[in-house]
UniProtKB/TrEMBL annotation:
The lineage of its organism: Bacteria, Bacillati, Actinomycetota, Actinomycetes, Kitasatosporales. It comes from Streptomyces enissocaesilis. InterPro entries: AAA+_ATPase (IPR003593), ABC_transporter-like_ATP-bd (IPR003439), P-loop_NTPase (IPR027417). This is ABC transporter ATP-binding protein. The keyword Coiled coil does not apply. Pfam families: ABC_tran. Belongs to the ABC transporter superfamily. Keywords: ATP-binding, Nucleotide-binding, Transport. Residues 2-232 form the ABC transporter domain. PROSITE patterns: ABC_TRANSPORTER_2.
Length: 361
């Protein structure tokens, strides 16, 4: 769907993209990076709207440098910022965009009605856009990207400005764009947690450089975490602490306790399982301390955890209640907000310290 080779974009004072090489196939792909990472710049180059300084890029097999018009015929684009005309209705606006894309009048009206229904705009589609909520405006932006039945849509921060419920609804819509219509999606976000729930593949960029590109399951399964809980004993009144110290001394890697704030979370240690020997190490260490083993179970990583460094391990300062448990993702929407806010900041620095991921960057 999208291929870039050593793609760079330099502005006078900043390198927005730095020798970025990507290969993105069909499906829903997340492009994640902190603010200023270069996501919007990449999208504008892919649409043929902004020339690259160096390197090449192709979308649907078409060269962005020479085939911008042909690319935009087959690709939908939802811009990050609100650029909607306030005085016209959603129907008028989306019909206009459909006509601009080359649809004849009747087809444009029919496609507009279908698309607005798909994004969940009904009677309100006849009211002026100026009176819409942020969520409704985002839906209009999504509809105009879909109306000409593209093969691929590029969605730039579609959840921006939405509350947690609105974000979940938008993410659901994005998933259905692919499952119901077979349209591939490249969606940007600075929130890792969102992409984990929505995308089959995730590309991480920072400072215009590729940090990692892999399937979401690879992100979350490259290492297994063991959740270990032990009892206290007379010798070790804080059994968890004693085990943490003993395991660290034995060379085990412990992850941030992302469950802090959840009931009983302080008693759970997350130990990276390098292999069978980690199970043995935990068992022997627990036995050696003379504390009771309440549980030792495998956990999948969530994306945000993959980006955490060992430095955070012992501090136990994570306030990010949603990152480690399924409960955190499926219950209260507040947990999402906490999770994503936490995930939005530190992870990128952490990745750089680690020297990148499996793509060797
Ligand atoms: N037209 C421009 N002129 C100069 N610098 C620019 C221009 N467009 C983008 N930049 C710079 O390039 C870098 C990447 O910007 P870009 O908008 O692509 O990031 P982003 O990942 O989309 O972040 P955000 O989500 O905040 O928009 C930033 O440092 C930005 O200031």
């Amino acid at each position: 769907m999208i291929a870039t080779e050593s793609l760079s974009k330099r502005f006078p004072r900043v390198t927005a993209l730095d020798r970025l090489s990507l290969d993105i196939g069909p499906g829903v792909t997340g492009l994640v990076g902190a603010n200023g990472a270069g996501k919007s710049t990449l999208i504008k180059i892919l649409l043929g709207l902004s020339p690259a300084t160096e390197g090449t890029a192709a979308v649907l097999g078409l060269d962005v440098a020479t085939s911008g018009g042909a690319i935009r015929e087959q690709v939908g684009y939802m811009p990050e910022h609100d650029a909607l005309p306030p005085d016209v209705s959603a129907t008028e606006f989306v019909v206009h965009m459909a006509r601009m894309s080359g649809l004849p009048p009747t087809a444009a009206r029919e496609r507009t009605a279908d698309t607005l229904r798909h994004v969940g705009l009904y009677e309100e589609r006849y009211r002026p856009i100026g009176g819409y909520s942020t969520g409704m405006k985002q839906r209009v932006k999504l509809a105009q990207a879909l109306v000409h039945d593209p093969k691929l849509v590029l969605l730039d921060e579609p959840t921006n400005g939405l509350d947690p419920v609105g974000r979940d609804e938008m993410l659901g819509l994005i998933r259905r764009v692919h499952t119901d219509f077979g349209i591939s999606v490249l969606v940007t976000s600075h929130l890792l947690g969102e992409l984990e729930r929505t995308c089959g593949h995730v590309v991480v960029i920072d400072g215009g450089k590729l940090l990692r590109s892999s399937s979401t399951s690879d992100f979350t399964q490259t290492t297994t975490t063991l959740a270990v809980e032990v009892t206290d004993s007379d010798t070790h009144p804080d059994g968890t602490r004693a085990l943490r110290e003993a395991l660290t001394a034995a060379g085990a890697t412990l992850h941030a306790r992302g469950e802090d704030g959840l009931p009983g979370a302080g008693h759970i240690l997350l130990v990276e399982a390098a292999g069978e020997e980690t199970y043995d190490l935990v068992r022997d260490t627990v036995a050696g301390l003379g504390v009771g083993l309440v549980r030792m179970e495998q956990r999948r990583h969530r994306i945000a955890e993959v980006f955490r460094t060992g430095a955070e391990t012992d501090a136990g300062t994570s306030t990010d209640a949603g990152t480690s448990t399924d409960a955190g993702t499926s219950t209260g929407t507040g947990a999402h907000a906490a999770s994503d806010a936490g995930a939005a900041h530190e992870p990128f620095a952490a990745v750089q310290q680690k020297g990148g991921g499996r793509d060797g960057v």
